[in-house]
Amino acid sequence: LYNLEPYFFQYLKKSKELIISYNQLTYLGNNVFYGLENNLEKINLAGNKIKIIESKAFKGLYRLEEISLGNNKLVDIKKINFDDLESLKKFNFFGNKLISFPSILNLSYV
Fold first, then answer.
1. 28 HSE (CA, 13 A, CB side)
2. CB-side neighbour CA atoms (13 Å) of 100
3. In tens digits, what is the pLDDT along the chain, a chain of 110 residues?
4. Taking a C-beta distance cutoff of 8 angstroms, is the pair 53, 63 a contact?
């Protein structure tokens, strides 16, 4: 899997967990998770080649509790809007070369 277009998951509205790890993804655009707002709790994107995440990639994911972005090629995530991630407790970014990290409140594990 190389690319996820906007609205890629719009018909998977009842999904609670997405595992898209160890593919060839390099980019997460705005609205890519549209349609999953009401149920999605976990996203595993580890082991891809993600370099860029657009500011509204995680828009509306109020129930999301865990994001795994470990072992990608991320350097800067400060432009990502995390405001909608009210339930976020775990954020795995291990194995990236982050030069800055935004202030994300309410996390149990980073």
1. 30
2. 7
3. 888 888 889 899 999 999 999 999 999 999 999 999 999 999 999 999 999 999 999 999 999 999 999 999 999 887 888 889 999 999 999 999 888 766 655 555 55
4. no
* Cα separations in angstroms, 105 against 12, 45, 84, 87, 91: 29, 21, 12, 10, 11
The model carries a pTM of: 0.87
CA-nearest of 98, 80, 92, 86 to 29 is: 80
CA angle in degrees (0–180, nearest 5) for 87-93-95:
165
d(CA 27, CA 66): 19
